[in-house]
Amino acid sequence: MLKARQILTALANQQDYRHFHGKRLRHDRFVISIPVTRHYRLICRDHGSFLSPEAVVSHEDYNVCKPGR
Hints:
69 residues; globular
């Protein structure tokens, strides 16, 4: 959780999500997935001028909720 907090602090300071290897989801380009560890992802929603964090989910849960999988 420490790394997730560091990422959230950096995002609040307007650091680009791509610095953390974040990617937009193909099925919903307003949702961004940022890897926290090998097994967890931080899910954020793009509101244009800022990102709002929505959840930290396991990679397994993340893969289950994606359409087409």
